[in-house]
Amino acid sequence: xxxxxxxxxxxxxxxxxxxxxxxxxxxxxxxxxxxxxxxxxxxxxxxxxxxxxxxxxxxxxxxxxxxxxxxxxxxxxxxxxxxxxxxxxxxxxxxxxxxxxxxx
Length: 104
Fold this sequence. Notes:
104 residues; alpha+beta; two-stranded antiparallel ribbon
């Protein structure tokens, strides 16, 4: 598994309420996406940085999303280019499902 942190600086601070509305408008796009296990949207406390934390089954699935087209969408929606950080994720503790997930 792989975790990707996609973050971007907003042109001006936004409130948590505004961020929630924006994020809800894009969330359906990620439902049922092949290889995507989970996505978290985030907003920094100062309201100037936002993004998503994605848990993928593999790097290949992650790379299938982060195309030039996706980056252009983020740029047009939020006003800046996303910065991507890739992290190997060998183990996940899921307290909602009461599972420990690990791929050999």
